Amino acid sequence: MADESRQNKLASAKKMLKQFQQKSTAPTPSGGKKKKKTKETNSHPDTPTSRSPDPIQALLKGLVSDLHRSNGVSFPSLGTMKQTDYDGMKISTGDSKSLSSTDSLRQLSEQLNGLVSQTNSYVNGENVISTTSPELESRFQELASALDSSNLTNKQLSTKIEELKQQNQEIGNQLDKEKKTFEQKFAKEQGALREQLQVHIQTIGILVSEKSELQTALSYTQQAARQKTAESEDLSMRLQSVKQRVTELERTLSSVSTQQKQAEKLNKELEKERDNLRLESLKISKNTDELKQQNSELSEKLNALISENASMRLEVGDLHKRLEMADLMIQQFSSQSGTPDANQQLRMMQEERDQLGAQLTQMSESLQQLSAERDQYVEKLREEGAVWQERVQQLSEQIQLLSQEKESARIEVDKLETRVTELLLASAAEPTETEPLAPAGPSEVELALRQECEKLQQELHSLQSRYQAQVQDNSQLSRLNQEQEERLSELEKTLQRQSDDNVDKQQILENMQSDKATISRALTQNRQLKEHLAELQNGFVKLTNENLELTNGLQGEQHVKKELAKKLGQLQESLGDFKEQLAAKGEELQLLQSQRDEISAHLQQYSAAYQQLAIEKEEIQRQYLLQAQLMDRLQHEEVQGKVSAEMHLKELQQSRENLELLTKENQELRAQVLQIRSEPESRVLSRIEGDGVESDAYEGETPRTTLVIPEDFESREEMMAFLNAAISKLQGEREEVERYLGEQKRYCQDLLLQISELRRQQMSGSLHYSADLSVENVPREVYDALQSAMDKLQLRFTDLMQERVELKDRVEELEHRCIQLSGETDTIGEYIALYQSQRAILKQRHHEKEEYISRLAQDKEEMKAKLLELQVLVMRLVTERNEWYGKFVEATSSLREVGAIELPENGERPMELGAPANDTLEEVSLVEDSEQEKVETETYSFPYRDGSSPATSSEDPTAKQIMQLLREIQNPQERPSSLLQNPCIPFFYRADEHDEVRILVV
């Protein structure tokens, strides 16, 4: 639209110029004739024309020419005067007044026309004899009179001309003075203008330097903008990658959250189970306390029963001896004739023997019941390893059964004591009467005792089988632990594969999650290792206790029944171990709770960090969107700037053309003004044909202003600088033109004043010639041309000023946007620096976590190696214990064969317990028995009579190695950069006064 309006304006201006040129080039016939006549008269004033044959016609023509140039100035003949307004002064022109000389001039012109016609006819060859000679004479007389009158008038006019010349000289002198004053003023004004030009040149130089500085700044800003665009592209690519990683991490987080929820559910279930187990453990602890008390009471009673049993066996041996003696006596008496009294005594003895047999059968039945109850107790102990609740119930049932058995055993012991006392009394009262009935009685007692020994052996075998079952259970538990470790290793491998597959994901959050997983793994593995260590330590303690029990059994080789009491003590110790295990498990549950709380705290921290990262990501996205919007705006503004630059270039071209036209017009106007100034000096107006403007050139013409507009601008600022320079130049030119026009106006006013004074002088001199002397020095055409030029200049000036204001507003907007962009780029740089610093911090944390995880893995491998060594040593110790146990079994079997029955004082051979009733007794050498006992006591003697425990003896290297490994596990090497403490539980071993090892958990 702007281009079309400008084109329309240019077309209208061209039309106006064409009209002006047509007006200026239109010919005026009167003026042309007068100029031709003046030229001819000026060239040949005295010589008559060659074509005019009549000298009178030449004289008349000379007179007319003298009349026309009597003043030396050509006066135009105007029919009507025009009214013109020129700066508030009105010049009114009316019809020319008729003077007295006009009539005479008309008559002369008629006569001259007649003469011209006669001469023409004569010249053309028409020699006609005029018939009107008197008329010619009269005319000639009139002409002579007219000539006389014209001579008089000529004389008068010559006098007037001389006066006018004097006046002209005076006016010329005044004009010279005014010229000098005007030239002085003009020189002063030129000096001021030159100073202003120098100031303008300096300002232009400053503007050029500023322009160069702005160009350099623009180049720097363009480079910075390119760098920022490249950085913004990099940031956009990074943001896209971050978005992708964030989406992947959100997926992984969702999966982890689901897993966490499942883990929380499992934790809740485990907490419930833990609470139930705590309640059960409290119940079990109460029951075990009661069982310990009952077992202690039962052990005391059993010890008493065993001692009574041993005394009863001694008494039974005495009774066997007495029965043998009685049998011998009965045989001796049976050979003799018996008396009725003896028969009665024999009957009485048989009845007593029957009673004793019945009592023995009852005792055997009670022993069978005890063995059956012991078998049930062993089965119940095996069932305890499967389920905790069943164990508790079985223990309670066993306690009840033991209490019942205790009461029954008390009753039976009381009965046995009463019977034994009765038998002793009876045997002491009537030794002689019991001799014939002796052979039948001892056989039954021996059978009962053998049955009891067999039952005791069965109980020993059952206890051994139970011990082997416990060993098998321990081995199964170790296998289960190994399988769990293998499963954990497989899970770790699968997790490592998954982590290797997900390498392309975001490193920060992935590493956090991997840290979580590794920490949880490490915690679970540490927990498992703790459990495994606790189990191994418990197994080791059990093994040491069993070794102590075996050594105690080796000490009590001769007292087999004391071993049963020790087994009951072992049962009590196992109950204590169960208690300790329950306490350890409670502590482990507390540790697990604390670890779970720590893990939950870590998870909360990680979730808070993830939320912070999400917030930072949203902020970065917002900043990126703002940057993208700003970049789009900049691109749009650059496109608009390019379009506007093209528009401005077009406008500049148009303005250059307009300026060229205006400069042309200004030059023409200056030439016209200079012609107007030069007219009073030369007094001759040499006009160009038909333009109405004087054409004298001015020597001090101002140089033509030309604008060289470059085709391509390097930058927008360069274009703006060029526009500002062009506008400043136009403003300077406009000011110069305005000043020059003002001067011309003042000069025109002075001229009009001078003309008015001349008119007054002419009116005062002679009223007859005042009309002919009314001269219009400033023509209408010149005034119209100047006025049109001024209007055009004013319009162009207003347009240029509006364009300049618009360009200034545009430049201010661009500067404001550039400032905004620089501020936003600074903020972007600050955000990038913050992001890099946070990323460096996260990298450091990740590096520290990786180091900690690697150290945990090393610790885990070391613990695994130590645990493998422990397992090997424990297996070695188990083999050694089995060897000791085999030796112990061999020793007990040999002791049963040799030292179960004491020899009598009279040196008679003892009867073998396992022999039948009717067989003969085997001979046993006491020397061999004593030698074998010495050897066995030497080999199986208790090694720590001086207070040293077997676990710490110098003869057991495996125990030493086990203790050394346990110390190494308890006191690992400290690392200064570890994040958590050592997860191992320290154990301190100490031997009691009773050579027992108790574990103190710190």
TrEMBL record:
Give GO BP annotations, semicolon-separated: Golgi organization
Question: Which residue spans adopt a coiled-coil conformation according to this UniProt entry?
Answer: 147-181, 232-315, 346-679, 783-824
For this UniProt entry, what's an example GO CC term?
Golgi cisterna membrane
Which Gene3D superfamilies does the record match to this protein?
A: 1.10.287.1490
Keywords assigned: Coiled coil
Comp. bias intervals (Polar residues):
19-28
Using the record's annotation, list all stretches that form the Golgin subfamily A conserved domain: 362-892
- Where are the residues of the annotated region Disordered? 1-55, 928-957
UniProt KW Iron keyword: no
Q: What is this protein called?
A: Golgin subfamily A member 2 isoform X1
Q: Which species is this record about?
A: Pelobates cultripes
